[in-house]
Amino acid sequence: MTDEALSPQGRQQADQMTAQAMRWRFLITLAAAVVLIGGGWLTLWATGGSSTVAPAPHPTAAASAASRRPSDELLETTKGLQVTQQQAVDQLQVVQDQLVAQQAEMKKLSEKIAALTERLDALQLSIANMPPTTRAAGSPSGPQPKAH
Questions:
Q1: How far is it, in rounded angstroms, from Cα 127 to Cα 115?
Q2: How far apart (Å, rounded) are the C-alpha atoms in residues 44 and 50?
Q3: Of the four listed, 13, 76, 93, 128, which is most buried by Cβ atoms within 10 Å?
Q4: For the segment 30-59, what is each residue's pLDDT rounded down to a tens digit?
Q5: Is the Cα dihedral 23, 26, 32, 35 positive or negative?
Q6: pTM > 0.70: yes or no
């Protein structure tokens, strides 16, 4: 069979078979088209319709406005949501900035409190370490006379 396929006679037979297959495909397609067109004409005849086709009604201004309304409403709603979203983002940014500022202020105040606590502890420690005589002399035990 490989010898036959390589010979000029084999090629000629293969070409004839291909041409014949193409003719059959064409005939089947043509028959299907005739059947479909004939079926369409029969359907029109059976329903009592005429062969003329009625023109499609043109949309009126009210109909086209009504059909545009949902898309326009959707557009407006989308724009409104975008504006609301941007406002929320802006407000969130303001709140975050305020939070950062408050945290920085709280840190400063904590550092000041820690420094004051250290100074107070040091002062209390120095008072506790003072000799008793100095404490008595430094603190008034009774009313002092006023200088005139």
A1: 18
A2: 7
A3: 13
A4: 888 888 888 777 777 777 755 455 555 565
A5: negative
A6: no
